[in-house]
Amino acid sequence: MAKLSAASRKTQLRQYFDSNGFERWSAVYGDDDVSFIRQTVRDGHEQMLNQARAWLLEHCSGGTLLDAGCGTGLFSLAMAQEGFDVTAVDIAPRMVEAARNA
Questions:
Q1: Measured distance CA(53)–CA(48) in Å, rounded
Q2: Which of 5, 11, 27, 96 has its CA 20 to 30 A from that of 19?
Q3: DSSP codes, 62-74
């Protein structure tokens, strides 16, 4: 099997997260009913975000954050509500658009 170049891999990831990946992860990060497996992913993701949020609030009183791989913006929005100046980026334009519209 041939190894993909970094540019090819980036293109492949962008295409995935702008199509099937967007639909799948939007469901996991959203509020709609999901399967048991997706619910466990959602719960684990929420725990991880809560841990990161708590750590930041314990160690920082505002500031600037970069959310690289922001997905639909859950963490970015939560931290902005806590007073942080957040820059959110993602490889997939649909993810960034969802974050903007949240």
A1: 9
A2: 5
A3: SEEEEEET-TTSH
Contact of 34 with 27, CB cutoff 8 Å: yes
pTM of structure: 0.81
- Return the structure tokens found at 44: 């684990």
Q: How far apart are CA 90 and CA 70, in angstroms?
A: 5
Sign of CA dihedral 33, 47, 14, 11: negative
Instruction: Compute φ and ψ for 15, nearest 5 degrees.
Output: -65, -45
What the block records as the tokens of 11 is: 């293109």
At 9-67, the pLDDT tens digits run 999 999 998 898 888 888 888 888 999 999 999 999 999 999 999 999 999 988 999 99
Going 96 to 24 to 44 to 12, the CA torsion angle's sign is negative
